[in-house]
Design brief:
Structural class: mainly alpha
Order of helices and strands: HHHHHHH
Largest sheet: none
Strand content: under 5%
Number of domains: 2
Number of strands: 0
Shape: rod-shaped
């Protein structure tokens, strides 16, 4: 929506005055006074832009067969190399699927980031 200056001043005189005069400026990087609110804002962005690793995917597996499929898939897509895939397979065979970490249920990242 386009609006000219004169119309804007008529519709929003105080806002126009603030914008032209530079009054009531608030810095975007202003510090928060409430540490609880600040912590929630930080936590909610904890996984923003996060790219899960192969072990993150392996933690979602219920059994060794699923884990093997993940390793195969990641190797096929060249997201992990042959030697790393072999190392993961060895760990899986020797120690089981939970060697990669505790089971991560559906919604894990939302829950951990405080969004759910």
């Amino acid at each position: 929506m386009r609006i000219n200056k004169v119309t804007f001043k008529k519709m929003f005189p105080r806002l126009a005055e603030e914008m032209e005069g530079g009054k009531a400026r608030i810095d975007v990087n202003a510090a928060r006074s409430d540490h609880v609110i600040e912590q929630k804002a930080t936590d909610s962005k904890r996984f923003d832009g996060y790219n899960p690793s192969v072990t993150d995917f392996l933690c979602r597996c219920d059994n060794a067969k699923q884990a093997e499929e993940i390793i195969d898939y990641m190797e096929k897509r060249s997201e992990i190399d042959y030697s790393y895939a072999q190392k993961l397979r060895g760990q899986l065979k020797k120690r089981g699927v939970r060697i990669f970490g505790a089971k991560r249920e559906e919604g894990y990242y939302f829950t951990e980031s405080g969004r759910k």
